[in-house]
Amino acid sequence: MNQEVLQINCLGNMNLMFKMEIFNKNQYITFDVKDNFCMFKRMLWHFIHSIKTRNPVIEARVTVNIMKVLIAGKISKSEKRPVTIDEIGL
């Protein structure tokens, strides 16, 4: 069974920081994003480009899985229990 895990940590009030961690069973990568504006600007450019070219940067299946993770996180918080994305019907 192929299982993907996403963990979102909410650290409360602290200095501006955007840390990304990417890992799988073979490797681990971490980096800090110190220029959020340029990152957001590039993201918007890619979004507009994908609309103009009708070629999405992210597949619909991946977008649906991201939505399931966010919904599962909200349910997990409100019900105070672990929630798998398989429980989320979209």
Given the helix and strand composition, which structural class is it?
alpha+beta
Total number of β-strand segments?
A: 2
Q: Which regions have little confidence, pLDDT < 50, spanning 5+ residues?
A: none
Distance between the termini: 20 Å
Assign an overall shape. globular
Q: What is the C-alpha radius of gyration, as a whole number of Å?
A: 16 Å
Which sequence of strands runs across the widest sheet?
1-2
**Overall mean pLDDT:** 84
Helix content: 40-55%
Largest sheet: 2 strands, antiparallel
The count of helical stretches stands at 2
- Give me the strand/helix succession: EEHH
Strand content: 5-15%
Topology:
Layout: E1 18-23, E2 28-33, H1 36-53, H2 60-79
Antiparallel strand pairs: 1-2
